[in-house]
Known about the structure:
mainly beta
Amino acid sequence: MNKDHLIAAFGLAGALFAAGCTSVQSYSASGVYLAGEFGKTRYGEKARLYRIIGAGGLHMDVTDYGGKVVSLWVPDAKGEVIDVTVGFDSPAGWETTDPYFGAIIGRYGNRIADGRFKLDGRDYKVPVNDKSHNAALHGGERGWDAYVWDAYTFKNPDGSGVGIVFQKEFPAGEQGFPGCVKAKITYTVTPDNVWRVDYEAVTDEATPVNLTQHVYFNMNGWGRILNQDLMIDADAYLPVDENLKPVGAPKSVAGTPFDFRTFRKIGERIDDPDPVLQHGPGYDHNWCLNGTGFRKVAELKGEKRAVEVWTDQPGLQFYAGNFIDDEWKMKGGRPMMRRGWLALETQHYPDSPNRPDFPSTTVRPGETYRTTTEYRFKAL
């Protein structure tokens, strides 16, 4: 893309970027701005950074490197904004800590036990990259989070939102999966402070597809998340073994540390001696969501801000940041902390390709995989 194309595509932001003097802090009007180069990935791809500013005060910085969310600024009742997520100053931050912070996850989110599954009578093998749990995690050794995607910005003419579209084609045999998959992920920020994620994918051969966004939240912006209030609309969860592999049928949450049907402090029972819980250790489990269709499935409350999670998916993986290392550094050199952020990943159940009793994740030629999740932010 040359300088003229940059200016045409991004207006003033494109002109500033082409001239080498872009500063995201100078942007205030609702829109999407190309903020500049974001460094090289370990695979030698050049990443870029974008700022999405909604009319209601919500704004976020994202990179085309795996669609990763770098920052997510949420207003309170007075309009004061804080950053409620984890991010880094360059790709190296993810590559030296955890690659999944705020990223698009695919081709298969969550774990496939032993990295093996059978589809239409054929055996397939995905690299076991979560060696401590003997599983293929989030797509294998190089999941969709580790690629630079094509990115296209937009502003809806009716004022309903601004955002960015990420597109990429993944060849048959990628990480051992069958079928060439073309994927499109759309981030939209609306005037009422909703971040909507729309997922689409098509394939030329039957293949498992289970996409999610691995954004992390701390609705106070800092500190442990243990005193924040969480609700998950689910009567059942999936018990797991020591490898976090689902075992048996879904189990009722009643009388267990997994009961979040009404708001509870996250830290209230996170260290209970329940053996399934301590396989985490602490929360890193799938809840079998109540209802069908697009509905509210969870809500997280901080002191002044909250986020509602809406989705059409059957499952929610709640991960309480148990493996975040206190020695890690995030953007600006800020120290991180164990259980300082949590993830609420809307998705199908883990290990579904090996569990015909679970909702199917198989997509076939002629079908289009579609799912939507919204994060609805509000002031308290």
